[in-house]
Amino acid sequence: MALVDGVTRRRERRRQLPEEVAAHVRQQILAGRLRAGDFLRTEPIAEAVGVSTTPVREGLLTLRSEGFVRLVPRRGFVVAPFTRQDVLDLFWAQARLAGELAARAAKRITPERLRRLDAIVASHAEAARRGDGELVADLGHAFHREINLAADAPRLASLLASTVKHLPPHFYASLDAQVASTERWHPVLVVALRAGDARRARTLMEEHVQESAGFVVAMLERNGLWQDAERDS
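^ that's the sequence the OP posted. Answer follows.
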């Protein structure tokens, strides 16, 4: 049994390694440290993440499927352009999917899950007061996860997760503007869910997610993500 468990853990770790590589490179791109046109060498990435070159290639292929990098024949992977409109499009898609999940959750959510949402809202306010950015991000994720689970629509939730992966909430959840937005939207979302008001829950969730787009665009501008393109235009 121990041998089987060990094999399972190793397989799970092998699956996680490319995801760690993708997350690292995605973060470097969004932080403006890697720019459109930069070629990505596998060895420095492997060293930075602490993996071999095989998961680096797998992780870069994941980023290729997301549109963050391109594969140039006989030359390797290169960072692809990532525009303001790309950001807005991603949040538009997230808003529609999250809104539908919230509407379905309003019809199915249990008193126990509502109590958990209340507790998350209270804990988020306390974490924000202490300035604990990591916990703020974790609690924001937990809030939305509870709603997505309540919707009982796993395929729809999976579609949302694949969209969110392009701009992980942990990347921007601790921004002051985002924290203030979350503290404003989450309590009223709980009210709509408790009332079973699907239409209200959908509208609130869509507006909440769409508002985040402006914060992320502003952050990426500060990171200098589009400076080179604007100088060349």
